[in-house]
Amino acid sequence: MTKTYGLWIDGSWRIPARGHYPVINPATEQPVGHAPDAAPAEVAAAVEAARTALPLWSRTDPRERAAVLDRAAALLTGRAPELVPLLQAETGATLRLTSRMQLPTAVDRFRRYARGAVEPATVPLAPHPVGATPLAPGGLIGAAAVRRPIGVVACITSYNFPLVNLVGKAAPALAMGNTVVAKPAPQDPLACLELGPILKEAGLPDGAFNVVTGSGPDAGAALVAHPDTDLVSFTGSTAVGKRIAETAGRSMKRTLMELGGKGAAIVLRDADDTVLRSAVAGVGSVWSFHSGQICTAPTRVLVHRSLYERVVTDLRDYAESLTIGDPVDNSTIVGPLISAAQRDRVEGHVAGAREQGARIATGGHRPDLKPGFYAPPTLITDADPAMTVAQEEIFGPVVVALPFDDEDEAVRIANGTPYGLYDYVFSADTGRAWALAARLRSGNVGINTVQRHPETPFGGFKDSGVGRDGGSFGLHAYSELQSVVWTS
Ligand code: NAD
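That is the input. Now the predicted structure with nicotinamide-adenine-dinucleotide docked in place:
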């Protein structure tokens, strides 16, 4: 029996006027549940509920806000036995990934921003002696900068890590006293809808957190265009991000943009066996970690020519060792892509690379697995950095290997796409890697690791986004500084 969800507006379920659409399990191609297809009037009702809840929630003692977020973390943990299978089924991610990361990371984010709610919101400034001016008498002028909530925050998220993406926005937004209208991705919104009653049970006032969903772009577009939305926090593709920024700019709405990426992993000439092993496993995460549907994935591996053949051979062996198949089977490493459309897109990129003269070193053919939207780990060599496959984000299990002769060329290739989200340097000399990081136009640089640090500011240069979240930077993203000045 699949569940049919309502819209979560003002603390209760609302039956959608336009009806529902099925959310499809990417491995079985069967419905997991039915999500509401929100009409613009229902999106407006969610925004109005959030606006009405704002005065109460923004004036709630930060310790009480922290307690609500902590209780949400505990409730989410308690619901793991039903939410992990739901998340797994709607995302197609492996069970291992879902149980170890999709849900626990969302819980961690609630806990982190429970602590965030009570971080000091006031930045004291040194008193400043000012002489008398025609404006006012002189004196020792005191001041402080205070973080204030922005207002109603629209959280529009991508598919891939639905709960993690949404909690990464909603938790810091609520911690700072904002209210939220969430609009998760059409492909995997069901666990996000479950967050509504969880936050209510945790003690959040009605209207402070709402969830609207839709099968197409309408619900998100209505949310962005609504005059009472103050900040649009968006995670998704660069193309949609640009469209949202245009609309938001017309009414001076704030935006936080976490967009696409085309990460470069640069393997320097000095890489020894240990570093090379890390590089191969790190780049291999494009295949083994949610089938490459990850914005930070190192989908281009740039290798010094002296090591190129070896790295290509090691990567090919690695790719061919990975088990593709049913994501609920514990031995599976590579599960399906989110949809038939996404699989077709990935296959189109690989076919385009072949036509342009690149070589498919491994993968490239649809696996004989039915049902399910599978694409194999694919390694492309003999490509030119200007080829589409080396320029555009694919969001699938595809790596392009490119040789370079010196660091200048490596930097040129790494910086030679419109993106700048996450690059990596693999070197036996971490000082050299640190120096190289300064030349990369990228919001994040990993040295000898693809591991993330949750306290770092996360975001992109260039077309990969605007603004930063993560750790305390997330609190800054969901607040505006107000300067208060006084005589002393
Ligand atoms: P997408 O841009 O197609 O959709 C993202 C969200 O925007 C969805 O909720 C969608 O319904 C909504 N949307 C679509 N059109 C809209 C419009 N006109 N107005 C308002 N909302 C609209 O992205 P996707 O396919 O869900 O996700 C993949 C993309 O997300 C990739 O580009 C990936 O790199 C990016 N991503 C980025 C990060 C990051 O932190 N930088 C993290 C995860 C995913």
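The two ends are 68 Å apart (CA to CA).
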